[in-house]
Amino acid sequence: MVSIKDIAKSVGVSTATVSKALNHKNGVSQAVRNQIMEKAKEMGYVVNGLARGMKIFKTFTVGVLVSDIKNPFFSEVISAMERVLYAKKYNLMICNVGENPQKEVEYLELLVSKKVDGLIVAPAAEGQNLSIYRNMVRHGMKIVLFDRLIDSVNCDSVVIDNRASIYEVTKYLKDRGHKKIGSIYGIERSYTGHERLNGFKEAMQELNLEYHKEWVRSGFFREEDSYKQSLDILAKSSKPTAIIAMNNFSTLGLMRAVKELEIKVPDDLSIIGFDDAEWMKVCSPSITTVIQPADAIGMTAATLLLDAIENENSHIPQHIVLKAKLIERESVASISP
Fold first, then answer.
1. 57: pLDDT strictly greater than 90
2. 8 A C-beta contact, residue 224 and residue 253
3. b/e map 217-247, b = 16+ CB within 10 Å
4. Mean pLDDT across 1-12
5. Can you tell me the distance from the alpha carbon of 239 to that of 235, in angstroms, rounded to the nearest whole number?
6. CA distance 315 to 239
7. Superfamily (CATH H level) for 4-45
8. What is the pLDDT of residue 48?
9. Under a CB-based contact definition with an 8 Å cutoff, are residues 313 and 142 in contact?
């Protein structure tokens, strides 16, 4: 474990100076503070004693970190986790990170200080806390990643095959005569955003469809951003005949733009969403969408964590990849050749 003394020796300052810098106290110049913070990050120092707080006994408490608690997908996943964990008398502590890496660190510190037995995590998009997760696993914390992966962290994980799902969607549109296809993708630096966007690019190439960069925009998995980007795409003289929205908030933003511009779906524009929500089923037309197996993701993640906690000496981390399902509704039209 990297210590304050290690950092002090590397930078050439006293341990007291390092302590002040790491705890944001006065008495350290900004230049030295920056040098210390950079060296701490480089060496993989676990901020504010995360490692020192590692539990030495079971508390039957599990921490869950998600990027956006308002997203119905995460609500469904957490509900499934709770059913599995409750049956084994475990409690949940749920933390909403909001794609904020610093907030993610603060919640990790909180959960470790509460001596949770394990963590189920959909990490913040930018992946800035890789060294912290590595150190936590190295020091014995049981972690299961879901929805998103972090490179080179040796722990359990459960995700869907995002690339295969987007390929299926793109082929579905091509089979119905669509050649001009756009998309509203998410956060490119996140695992899901990167996988879905690159899955779309690969599908367009493999299916011999022309890729129009001006029709492919990031909505950051947010409704308002997706709405603005959709307006811009649909205001162009040359427009796609179909748009794939790569999560439920992106779909909602796209639908807002379509309504405002009085575009008829699917007569003027076909739409496919990703994830599901009640409004997608009851709006007119209802939305064709890719449904992630949220229940299975939550149950699998919870089961993997329980096995890691209760069978510590024999547990081998697993990487589980599940399949999503395309649900046909009313928002896609067929185009005659």
1. no
2. yes
3. bbbbbbbebbbebbbebbeeeebbbbbbbbb
4. 88
5. 8
6. 52
7. lambda repressor-like DNA-binding domains (1.10.260.40)
8. 52
9. no
CATH number of the domain located at residue range(s) 51-159+294-322 in this protein: 3.40.50.2300
Condensed to tens digits (0 to 9), the pLDDT of residues 267-325 reads 999 999 999 999 999 999 999 999 999 999 999 999 999 999 999 889 999 999 999 99
Residue type, 65: L
Range with the lowest mean pLDDT among 20-29, 179-188, 200-209, 287-296? 20-29
Amino acid code (one letter) for 59: T
Token digits for 78?
């957490």
* CATH fold of the domain at 162-292: Rossmann fold (3.40.50)
Per-residue pLDDT, averaged over 177-196, amounts to 95
Beta strands in the chain (DSSP E): 61-66, 91-96, 118-121, 142-146, 156-160, 181-185, 216-218, 242-245, 270-274, 288-291, 319-322, 325-327
The C-alpha atoms of residue 197 and residue 209 are separated, in whole angstroms, by 15
